[in-house]
């Protein structure tokens, strides 16, 4: 891709007035494909700017979630800030917000109010628990969604406690779902000529990822329990340690793969067992299968195991850290890691756009920018002159 390659969402303007990760993450995905994303932050800054690992006082989380966005400061609780927001909405396609339900209405920025200004506006509203129901006014974060969705209940070892992920899984799932739903709303606008509200509750996208657990409970009264790295649907499926101390993941979701693994590890007789013919049957004999596969792997170094699995056309992969990812030739071939020339940190490595379009690919054009870096440019586009901007700064509006 070069500077002349068209970005598919060029001409789409997104106002990102959300904080932290789920709403802003959706805006980031739109920005990756060329949308003009204007990040609206309180003059004190998005909390994401102070989250996680920092280098020279700069949050690497912010550099990632703030990429491809122009950043302006605006106190939306102030009358002057609300007036500027309405001016921005006039030419916007999407507005993203994740304040507690009712907050934007209290500020005169609810959907019905903004739709009178711009009937084509798509408003993405992300909240912990949705905009209806008894919990709608509660503060919600990804951790709570990971707990309520059932994820924590079925994650961890059988004799251990429910386990939360060490990263923002619920936020990430909500970001992807929200970006998708926003694009659906923009597509529908081409037919109806009108925008609409996209309502994402953090507790729902991650629940969707968990598969048919609700159906299994309704039909069979079955509640999935914790099984560690094993699967309740097939076996062998686990993390196994090699002779050299490295860990490998093995999956046998397909029957043919399971049979190949048994032949590889020297136990073809197990294939003839009646229970081996289905994933559920193999899962019921997981101890026997894990002993065979785990024992074979434990007697060999990782490179030998990977080569043998590859020759047998069976499924195996190493357990990677970030250090392994940046050195891996497969990730290199995909272009998974890109280096962005950041004015504050220099060459900055981060994940690239998470999907490749053959004709109109996305692009990481810049990392998260300093607070209010684009105030003059964006407010100037609204006709707000230098003297007025100075006065707005003095009053704390920007």
Shape: elongated
Mean pLDDT: 96
- In whole angstroms, the N-to-C terminal distance is 36 Å
Oligomer: single chain
Quickly count the helices.
17
Widest beta sheet: strand line-up: 5-2-1-6-7-8
Characterize the largest beta sheet: strand count, sense, and whether it forms a barrel: 6 strands, parallel
Instruction: Write down the CATH class of the largest domain.
Output: Alpha Beta
What would your notes on this structure say?
The strands form four sheets. The protein has a six-stranded parallel sheet with strand order 5-2-1-6-7-8, with helices on both faces. Strands 9-10-11 form a three-stranded antiparallel sheet. 38% of the residues lie in helices and 15% in strands. The chain is elongated and about 80 Å long. The model has no long low-confidence stretch (mean pLDDT 96). With 398 residues, the protein is of the alpha/beta class. The chain has 17 helices and 13 strands. It folds into two domains: 255 residues, 3-Layer(aba) Sandwich (Rossmann fold); 89 residues, 2-Layer Sandwich (formyl-coa transferase, domain 3), CATH 3.30.1540. 34% of the residues are buried.
Keywords:
single chain; 398 residues; alpha/beta; Rossmann fold; formyl-coa transferase, domain 3; 2 domains; six-stranded parallel beta sheet; three-stranded antiparallel beta sheet; 17 helices; 13 strands; 38% helix; elongated
